[in-house]
Amino acid sequence: MKRIIVTGLILAVFVAGAFAYITISKIYQEAMEDLEAGRRAEARKKFEKILTISKTHSLSDNAQYWIGETYFDDGLSYDTLGDTVNARRSYKKAVEAFRAVFNFTDRETPKYMDAAYKIALTYFRMGEFEKAYYEAVKFIAFYPESKNVPQARELIAKIRGKQVARTDSLPANLPDTLKPSRPDTTRETPKTQ
Length: 193
What we know:
By secondary structure, this protein is an all-alpha fold. The protein has a single domain (2-173), classed as Tetratricopeptide repeat domain (Serine Threonine Protein Phosphatase 5, Tetratricopeptide repeat), CATH 1.25.40.10. The protein contains 7 helices and no strands. It has helices at 2-36, 40-53, 60-81, 84-100, 110-126, 129-142, 149-162. The longest helix has 35 residues, at 2-36. The protein starts with a helix and ends in a 31-residue tail after the last helix.
């Protein structure tokens, strides 16, 4: 009798896990379809539902990332309308959502890299140039192989062009390895003949 109960429990756990996997995959697909159709709020609700079902599913970090994207896109829309208050509110939520991607264990996921870059870009859109600079430099240092490195370098150049973020105005806790290098002017340049 105990064997039947144990077997039944194991089978129930297996079926529940398989059901959750299928459910999450279906919800994720529907959310992506909503996102592609421009229905950000509906997509966001579905991505959030995935996270309430499971934070360990292979699509959970993706769902978290896309929540950030929906808020970022909301911010862009509000910016276009000239609604800076709601744009800023959406951008702040985007940063929070992108940062939450780092709570997932697989640090090598492409969503980690994408989220790190989007944090820098979001701060730039908010006009918080020092934070954007810091995050862009940090992103390049941690993810030099990312496809977004050229865009991050471009972002840094835009910030430097605004002369808002200079090395001496970066946060004090920025590790030396993340600070942009300055040319060493103390060395003599070799003379050419």
